[in-house]
Amino acid sequence: MSRISFTTATLPARKRIALVAHDHCKQYLLDWSERQRDRLARHHLLATGTTGQLLGQRLQLPIESMISGPLGGDQQLGARIAERRVDMLVFFWDPFEPQPHDPDIKALLRVAAVWNIPVACNESSADYLLASTLMEQAHDYRIPDYDSYLQGRR
């Protein structure tokens, strides 16, 4: 079994923040986003389908929307994380309700952990992330060294 090597990358000062919420949590995300609107406005925002439409209407900010989560939007965001095109994930998920696309959700959270991006799963953790001094500055962090990984597979 080979071990993954790591390298350093830099999160930019202007973050690409993915916003996701299960149906029962959409209102919580909308309310939280409205409270954090001024901070969120300084960053590039992405969201899955319906959540993106609702956020765009509520915040009057540009939101790059994927397709709906159950139709593949979670996987779209996961791909963006792996491509290093998402810097932070705010995912208000419903721990009380089973989701038909649980494997996609687990994959999204896994890829966020693999690529070492900040993840908030509720209002409190999202508040802490946005209040961090690192939100407004570039920040070095550790990521898998994909080139080294490819060399080891030959």
From TrEMBL:
Keywords: Lyase. The keyword Phosphoprotein does not apply. The active site is at 74 (proton donor/acceptor). Transmembrane segments: none annotated. Residues 9-154 form the MGS-like domain. Substrate binds at residues 22, 26, 48-51, 68-69, 101. InterPro entries: Methylgl_synth, Methylglyoxal_synth_AS, MGS-like_dom, MGS-like_dom_sf. One of its GO terms (molecular function) is methylglyoxal synthase activity. It holds the Pfam family MGS. It catalyses: dihydroxyacetone phosphate = methylglyoxal + phosphate. It comes from the Bacteria. Its EC number is 4.2.3.3. The keyword Lyase applies. SMART domains: MGS. Catalyzes the formation of methylglyoxal from dihydroxyacetone phosphate. Belongs to the methylglyoxal synthase family. This is Methylglyoxal synthase. It comes from Pseudomonas zhanjiangensis.
